[in-house]
Each structure stands twice: as C-alpha cells, then as structure tokens.
Amino acid sequence: MISKNLTAVTAALGLSLVATSVSAQDYFFRIPHVTSANEPVQEALEHFAELITERSDGRIEAEVFPGGQLGTNLEMFEQVDLGAEIIILADPGYLSNFLPDFGVLNGPYLLDTPADFQKIIASEWYAGMVDQLRDETNLELLTLNWFFGDRNVISSRPVATVADFDGLSIRVPPNPMWIATFDSLGARGEQIAWSEVYGALASGVVNAAEDPLGQI
Q1: Does residue 150 come out as left (phi exceeding 0), alpha (psi in the -120 to 50 range) or beta?
Q2: Which of 11, 61, 130, 133 could disulfide-link to 146, CB 3.0 to 4.6 Å?
Q3: What is the pTM for the complete model shown?
Q4: Which long-range contacts (CB under 8 A, 24 or more apart) does 68-76 make?
C-alpha cells in the first residue's frame, strides 16, 4: 500500500493498515481537515496521530492540520492524487470525483439506522470499489467506519418540512451527490468551502447550511 503515496478517508481502525505496510524507512504524514481546531474531530485525529507513532514504534509520524490550512477537501484529494503524503478525513462524496459510483454512499435516505452502513462496507460491491480506486488512482481508502452524526440544517428561516427547502439558498459541498440532493428538494445550492461558511451566512451569500452538530 505504501508503494504509492498514501491517502485515506480514515478512522482510528485504519491505523493497522498503515503500520503493517511500512518498512524500516521513516514516514511523515500530514492529517488535514477543514473543520475548527475546537471541534471533537480535532481531538480524535490528534489521538489517531499519537497511535500512529506508538504502534509503528516511531517509524511513522503524523501531524494534524485543522481549519482548512492545506486547502479544501477537494484540493487535498487532488494534492494526494498528485503525490502528496496526506491522510484525509472526509466523506465519500469527494471520492466520486475520482470514481463516480462512490457518490451513492452520500445518497439521502440510504439507511434506516447508522449500523446499516456496516452492511455496505462488508459487501463485495464495496470491496470491488476500493480495489478499483486503488488501481485507477493514487488514492488508498483505509476505512469508512467513523460516524460523524446526523445532518442538521441551520437557517435564517424555519425548515421543518421538505417543502421548506423550496427556494432556500444553502451551502453545499462541491461534490455531485450533495448538489443533486438539494437541487431535488428545490433548494439553490451554493458550493462554498466549509472554512468560508460562517462568512457566507453572515453576509447573506447563503441563508442556510447543514452538517453534523459537532461541526455546527
């Protein structure tokens, strides 16, 4: 796996896949994310970085970069595909820019409960998609088993029903499934980097955004 420059949509369980693939040569990985250093994900990724060093007996080190310091999610994926040594934490929608079928994993109403997602990542379809991603790009998917939480809408006007999305200007990530989802609801999706969302809401560029509570 380290024969290529390594990247991942990762959670803590991805660590063993990295550590067991490394020779005596030292490695340094950057672990960027687009959310604030004050959010729970920062603490989790710092712990992940500590485990990388501990379980590799110091042969691999990693540093966390919050707040979009290394660019947007899409920019970081592109950096890795060009050879940057980065471990990325992001949703699978961004993988659809490299392998379109991954976008279905961000589809609305895909699951009855979060536990149902385990059935997907245990499937032959998922295994085949991971292999195809490895063969066709410089991306290596470690795991998709980190649960961020339900999506929540923040808005300058009440959003209590599907009909309330009609005409709503809402920030969306720059990947096809999110754009198509809110378009189907009648909303006007604006592609804005997460680090710029607060300014966009404050200035009225958009009237709404959505994300898990930890990020909001």
Answers
A1: beta
A2: 11
A3: 0.75
A4: 68/32, 68/33, 68/34, 68/193, 68/194, 68/195, 69/32, 70/30, 70/32, 71/32, 72/34, 72/174, 72/193, 72/194, 72/195, 73/34, 73/173, 73/194, 74/174, 74/175, 76/32
d(CA 9, CA 96): 12
Task: Look at residue 195 in the predicted model and tell me its pLDDT.
Answer: 82
77 exposed, middle or buried (CB, 10 Å; 0-12, 13-18, 19+)?
A: buried
Structure tokens at 106: 């961000």
Name the burial class of residue 169, with classes exposed (0-12), middle (13-18) and buried (19+) by CB atoms within 10 angstroms of its CB: middle
Q: pLDDT of 69-93, one tens digit each?
A: 999 888 998 898 888 899 988 778 8
Which residue has 């709404």 as its token pair?
A: 208
CA–CA distance, 123 with 167 (Å, rounded to integer)? 38
Domains and their CATH numbers in the chain = 12-136 (3.40.190.170), 152-211 (3.40.190.10)
